[in-house]
Amino acid sequence: MSERSGSTWVTSTSGALHNGTGDMYVTFGADQRSSGRPSFRRVADDQLAWLRRVLVAPPGMGNARLQLARAGTVILDGAPGSGRTSAARVLLREHHTDVGAFRELLPGEEGELPLTDPELVGAGDRLLLDMSAAEVERWAAARADLSALRKAVHEQHAHLVVVMPYGGILDSDLQQYRIEIQQPCRARVLRRHLRVHGVPSEHYLRPDATVTEFVNEQRPLREIADFADLVRRAREAAARDEGFAQWCTTAHKARADRREEVATLVATLGDSPQRALLITVAMLHGAHADVIHRAAQLLLDTVGLPPDDVPLLQRKDLAERLVEISAGVGPDGHVRFGELDHDSTVRAHFWDHMPDLRQYLGMWTARSMALNGPHITQELRDGLVAKLAGEYLRTRRPEGLASLAEAWGSTAASKAGLEAAVQALTCGLGDRVQARSFRGWIYQWCTGKQLKEQFAQVLVQVCADVVAAGHPDQAMLRLYYLARREHSTGSALHALSDLVETSHRLRRRLFHRLARSELSRADLGIFLRVGVAEALTDPYDNGRTLVEEESVQSSVTTCWRAVLNGLPRPTWQPYAERWMHAAADDGHEGDLLLELLVSAADRCEGRRGAAFAALYASARDAERTAPVGSSRAALTTDLLLQKICSAQRLSRPTTPPRAESTRGTEP
């Protein structure tokens, strides 16, 4: 298996998955958050499960397994193309449990804790530190922090796999964790991919000259994965009388450099309509002929060419025009080139040799997304955006794709336009080389710009469904900033709440961030939403709860004090009632919940009495709706009153004050 698998395998339509070159189809919709789809955590686990299916264990894998199981840490070394990063991910997948999550550590990026911070590691987490492409300075800094990181990993019963730079320096005290990964048998890698792609074994087990020549050449494993995917696609497009040898020949030919062939073809197409048709087929390869015709006309209109003045019945029909560009309409009515992967070469030619056309392709893509009809599918729209994004990423122009996504998301007048923005950012985040830039731009958008609400919704979806899949800390920070700024939809707050619901560690981080901030009214709303009592008393890590942690107690008390001081009682009353209900049902933890509320009220300088009275009145109100019954809830109210009296250094009154006596004293 390679460091970047060369095939595309979608195990669910719930999030972004891209394991190599080629098109990526991702369906996002405005209502998808409530569609019951698997969470981002499931998406990340599905990606790891796919890697495990296609991995051929490289030499050294067994030793790496033993090392990871024994010490909780392993450092993988190996030449580029040996499959070391895929091996690292599979090693972590093999330690999958219901506790903890898979995460890739990205030290130095916004939203990422330092490797030395104990809060970086949650109970049972599976952590990947991929430094395979790190420069000398970054690797030296990471090595210096590995001791503290390994200590936290050990304490949290987590697992850590580090991929070191090839030829990098490793300190003597870390040598015991180093395992070298070597490239596995290339023929076995190809057969494994073909098997997973559904190619029957009786085909690929036969000797084939094309396959033998291909696997005997020294090459990175990702190229073998790419070749296997081409064989799969050749099989799907082949005639019934073609066999494995023809599929492999077609796949091998698709790998050849056909740029001169395409350049010659373009030179023979002197008129604009034919070039527009060629571009359209390349961008919408496999679309229905009706869609190709409409989109080609739309491209001509986008670049400002006047309509054809030739009488309608004297014009060439579509079939004749397609023959001139080496394409045709199949029995299903869909248009394809005759050669496999010819569309990617055509796209690259126009992108590279007609740079002035690029801005028009962006405009045309946006207009094409708005087309409707029986043959306009979501897969077609997503594929169009993915192909355009692929050219930006191939030519290392990520800033152009980011700007295009921002423009689409800020000006889109339709759901399709917003989905295009989501898809464009998803493609950028899925690019191994340029994902870091896109995460940085998303952070800048979330924190430093006046966002139009519709683009803010794009960012919410991308953070919750894409960034969070492998980088939940970064997703949490970005959703936090979006939640602070939203006014009506509440989608960012909802997504943030869903995210911290998956991890006590993330909820703890959010509490600490809130407690250290100025606690605006928006911050208080975030706290009330994520600081629900049930989450604080939910056991984790061998029965521990968040409410028992001193640091959490301090942060929660600070936040509740700000709530009691800064918000009217009707705003926080429902949340306080939930605290009372949880306190009535949770024994020792319930007692701690009451202590935190009383401590928060006790710190309301100049308003202590009013805060205490409001809490008591809320407890009385909570008795009527307590799931455990009013009698048991009344005991909780009585305990709260005792704590209030103790805080005020008063003896407990023999007759508790009636709820009516608190009127006029509420904050």
Automatic annotation (TrEMBL):
Listed InterPro entries: P-loop_NTPase
SUPFAM superfamilies xrefs: P-loop containing nucleoside triphosphate hydrolases
Biological source species: Streptomyces mutomycini
Protein name: ATP-binding protein
